Amino acid sequence: MHHDDYARDRLYRLLALIVTGIAIMFMGQLVLKEASSVSNFFSGSREPGAVVAYETAAPNYADTERTTAVDPGPTNGGANSKALTGEVRMMLVVVGGVIVMAIGAPVAYHAFSKALERRRQVRADKHRAAAALVERREQWSAVEKRHQVVQDAWFDAEMDVVTTMLTRPALLDPAVPATGRLIEALENARAIHAASGGEPPAAWLDGISDLESLPYYRAVLDLERNWRAATTAADKAGRAILPRTERRILAEVESLLAIATGGASANERDTAYARIKTLLGRIKTLRIPEKAWQAIDAAHRPQIAAGVST
Predict the structure, then answer these.
(1) Is the whole-model pTM more than 0.70?
(2) Where does the chain cross the membrane (predicted)?
(3) Domain segments of the chain: what residues?
(4) Beta carbons within 8 Å of 112's beta carbon, 6+ residues apart
(5) Which tens digit of pLDDT belongs to each residue from 103-145?
């Protein structure tokens, strides 16, 4: 969860507490007001039939005359009773409202907090899902890179066919078991990746399956194992897998290669390359791809161009 989300949730809860506090204070003030009104009413009330004293102005006399009168109980008593009933009813309504607020405010606050928690959980789940998706795509890209590393190494071995023949010729011989398995693993991984369109399976992106269950991942692991096995076997075997005649051919190719790459004149380099191509064509045990011949020609042409320019 991001820090901003936590800060926003705390602000929402603080606002809820402030609003609840204001509401309770307002209702409390109403209760006090109504209680004061009722108190004033009772303190200023009179019993029916009570004798009260009052002053009347005597227009024809110099002094004020005090007179007594009897309070008309029934008439004033009924009005006071109705006023009392209205005041008490209002106070009861206000008190009831305060009680409801006192009980309902914590409940409302708890419900509000739960809603915020659910909202925060939903955001957290979305963040985790997005992060998991990015991580899974990165894992898929890492598997593709591992696949590409082996493919590039195999491509280099085929294109630099002369060096491969001289150092680890078994890599060019499909009859060697380790090399045959390597070629099959290369084709298998390539086919599975092509079938997927270069995209990871939706079930894996959704987290339904794990990486180890992906056919492409298993194919790349198998390819890496077979590459290590094939190169190890080829390094161990050396040129011993070839017939003696072909080993002699490779020895001559090795000596000619020094002339082809560092001969004194363009004519010497050109003659050395032509001889190398002829000798390699006599080797039948190893598989020399067409693109390897093209690579030899491409390496030969710069030597000719250099000789012409000089």
Answers:
(1) no
(2) 12-32, 90-112
(3) 1-41+83-139, 140-309
(4) 12, 13, 16
(5) 666 666 667 677 777 777 777 767 776 777 788 888 899 999 9
